[in-house]
Amino acid sequence: MKIAPSILSADFAHLARDIQTVQQGGADLLHIDVMDGHFVPNLTFGPAVVAAIRPVTSLPLDVHMMVDDPEAWIPAFAKAGADTLLVHVEATPHIYRALQLIQEHGVKAGVVVNPGTSLSAIEEVLPLVDQVLVMTVNPGFGGQAFLPAMAQKVAQLARWRSERGLAFKIEVDGGITDQTIGTVAAAGADIFVAGSYVFAKGDSPAKQMAKLRAAGQ
Ligand SMILES: O=C(CO)[C@H](O)[C@H](O)COP(=O)(O)O
């Protein structure tokens, strides 16, 4: 299992410090939530912030693009140093083209589904992608409650992956805690994004991530 702390819950005034803390604490990836104020009702980071983060960590940068017209932003985020770019199927009428564009920039491509979107919307692109991100909350904010019904989507993706001989990773994002990680881990998820649980609750980020790993076994 891979743990990807979301910097949405980090201290923005001490971003480099918090990133180094989670790297030293055992994070596998760094999840960066890009929000444009249109696709979701919140505003966060642009390519300049990703470029500033790139030299302060060796963790792979997992960039979740919650933006309209993602094709317009893919070149800038690739240049900024993203290792994976994740685009929402709901954000473009041309998801296949967007994923090809990501790969043309030498970056891993991921597709994201909102809680209200059926997996049928992404079935055709599964052979193309490196990652599928199943939103386990409505996107836009950290600290929301996990939606248990999303575990069924994870299980369906895991079945398709096995039956069709595909190799994409299954990622989950939203409301992941020591109480919720077990259900999506059992369903077949590989990558677990956690923001408020890692940065804002309880023990140090290292201990919080260790608790997630223990609960997800
Ligand atoms: O994509 C996101 C919000 O749109 C965040 O990554 C996600 O909500 C993580 O935060 P938390 O772990 O606090 O739920």
User: Which class of secondary structure composition applies to the elements?
Assistant: alpha/beta
Distance between the first and last residues' Cα: 9 Å
The CATH superfamily label reads Aldolase class I
Task: Using the 3D structure, state the CATH architecture.
Answer: Alpha-Beta Barrel
The global form is: globular
Q: Residue share in helices?
A: 25-40%
**Main sheet characteristics:** 8 strands, parallel
Number of continuous helical runs: 8
- CATH top level label: Alpha Beta
Approximately how much beta-strand content do the residues carry? 15-25%
Rg, nearest Å:
16 Å
Unreliable stretches covering 5 or more consecutive residues: none
The chain-level mean pLDDT equals 97
The count of β-strands is 8
Order of helices and strands: EHEHEHEHEEHEHEHH
* Ligand list: ribulose-5-phosphate
Pfam families: Ribul_P_3_epim
Binding site for a divalent metal cation: 31, 33, 64, 173
Catalytic activity: D-ribulose 5-phosphate = D-xylulose 5-phosphate
Function: Catalyzes the reversible epimerization of D-ribulose 5-phosphate to D-xylulose 5-phosphate.
Question: What attributes does this structure have?
Answer:
single chain; 217 residues; TIM Barrel; 8 helices; 33% helix; globular; binds ribulose-5-phosphate; Ribulose-phosphate 3-epimerase
